[in-house]
Amino acid sequence: MQKGSLDEEVQKLIESNSLLRDRSFLAKYPQIIGIASFLNSVAKTMEGVGRKYPLFVDLGIENIEGYLELLNSKDQKAIISYKKMQDNLGL
Predict the structure, then answer these.
(1) Structural domains in the chain (count)
(2) How many whole angstroms separate alpha carbon 1 and alpha carbon 4?
């Protein structure tokens, strides 16, 4: 994937999700754009081969929008997953 297209994908993700433009949400989850981009990319790749992303299945959601909503509603499983990804991705 070319750098320009990656930047475009991140920009489209931000534009399509109001929480990724919400200053208070971003303050609570400062690494969320990177994590959301990663999750969205993995989920789309898995969908392309007919599989569902296990984290989304575990959380009972279908897509990144559901994940963001769970974080916003202070769902503990979503918050724990955010913190783990933050550590694992070195963010």
Answers:
(1) 1
(2) 8
Q: For residue range 40-51, what is the model confidence (pLDDT) as tens digits?
A: 999 999 988 999
Tokens coding 79: 């918050």
- What range does the domain containing 34 cover? 3-88
Cβ 37 vs Cβ 9: under 8 Å: yes
Whether 15 and 37 have beta carbons less than 8 Å apart is answered as no
Length of the chain: 91
> pTM here?
0.87
Alpha-carbon span 39 to 23, nearest angstrom = 21
Q: How far apart are CA 53 and CA 74, in angstroms?
A: 21
Burial of 37 (0-12, 13-18, 19+ CB in 10 A): middle
Mapping DSSP onto H, E and C, the string for 37-55 reads: HHHHHHHHHHHHCCCCCHH
